UniProtKB/TrEMBL annotation:
Superkingdom of origin: Eukaryota
Positions of region (Disordered): 201-254
GO cellular component terms listed in the entry, alphabetical order: cytoplasm
Name under which the protein is recorded: PITC1 protein
Limits of the Phosphatidylinositol transfer protein N-terminal domain: 1-182
Low complexity: compositionally biased ranges: 203-219
Coiled coil region boundaries: none
MF (Gene Ontology): phosphatidylinositol binding; phosphatidylinositol transfer activity
Gene3D superfamilies, alphabetized: 3.30.530.20
Length: 254
């Protein structure tokens, strides 16, 4: 229901999304891929690298990679003054009016990026690939639009919710993550799919992701199974639209 009509026309009612994430703060990777689970969406992938630095966004080529030398666009997201879709606006999450009781931070005024302390910038390198003839450009541009707004809304909320997470211990963070996961699964009605699989004549898998990972990675190099798509350059990003549900509001209504 969140997809545009042209996307719903080619999307079945049931499909799966696999997300893999690797966290070595301040460097993280998130990769979404339909290519192994969705035959109707071959070679569809979203790959996002993230680095955090204590500055206002003035680092050049922070990823030290030739991946960004091709067709790309640099977009600065201002959590206070960039427009968001009206239906997702919440006055309590508006950094222009929010003031933190715990830290005294906010509201954010014009020019806040130059004079606000402390400050952190989240750098994102977003790659989208959808190799389906006739839909490639439209889908890739749409996904970039959605990701841009998700990032904008999410970081606005991170600032506006600072009194909820500031000072949390790691144990409290893990407990909060677990509670949020359970609440989300209950909200969307997560159920185990009824699928019958025969063990006769099944090909041997050529590779698989690790069954588990240590809480602290042994290397600052990302694992091979999270390698970015390399067959073609990324498409440009663009603003507009959003598919991020108001999770808390809906959960409260339930």
């Amino acid at each position: 229901s969140k997809l545009p009509s042209w996307a719903r026309a080619v999307t079945p009612r049931i499909f799966y999304i696999t997300e893999k994430a690797w966290n070595y703060y301040p460097y993280t990777i998130t990769a979404d891929s339909h290519s192994l689970q969705c035959s109707f969406l071959p070679k569809f992938s979203i790959y996002i690298e993230t680095k955090y630095e204590d500055n206002c966004g003035d680092s050049e080529n922070i990823f030290h990679s030739d991946k960004i030398l091709g067709d790309h666009e640099v977009s600065f997201l201002d959590i206070a003054f960039d427009e968001i879709p009206e239906r997702y606006y919440r006055s309590l999450e508006d950094p222009r009016f929010f003031s933190s009781a715990k830290t005294g931070r906010g509201p954010l005024r014009e020019g806040w990026r130059q004079h606000t302390k402390p400050i952190m910038c989240s750098y994102k390198l977003v790659s989208v690939k959808f190799e389906v003839w006739g839909l490639q450009t439209r889908v890739e541009q749409f996904v970039h639009k959605v990701i841009r707004d998700i990032l904008l809304i999410g970081h606005r909320q991170a600032f506006a919710w600072v009194d909820e997470w500031c000072g949390m211990t790691m144990e409290e963070v893990r407990r909060y993550e677990q509670e949020t996961q359970e609440a989300t699964n209950e909200l969307i009605g997560l159920v185990a799919p009824a699928i019958s699989v025969s063990e006769v004549g099944q090909p041997t898998a050529t590779h698989s992701a690790p069954a588990s990972a240590p809480s602290t990675p042994l290397s600052d190099e990302a694992p091979e199974f999270l390698a970015p798509p390399k067959t073609r350059p990324r498409k440009k990003s663009a603003p507009e639209t959003l598919t991020l549900p108001a999770l808390r509001e809906r959960a409260g209504a339930e």
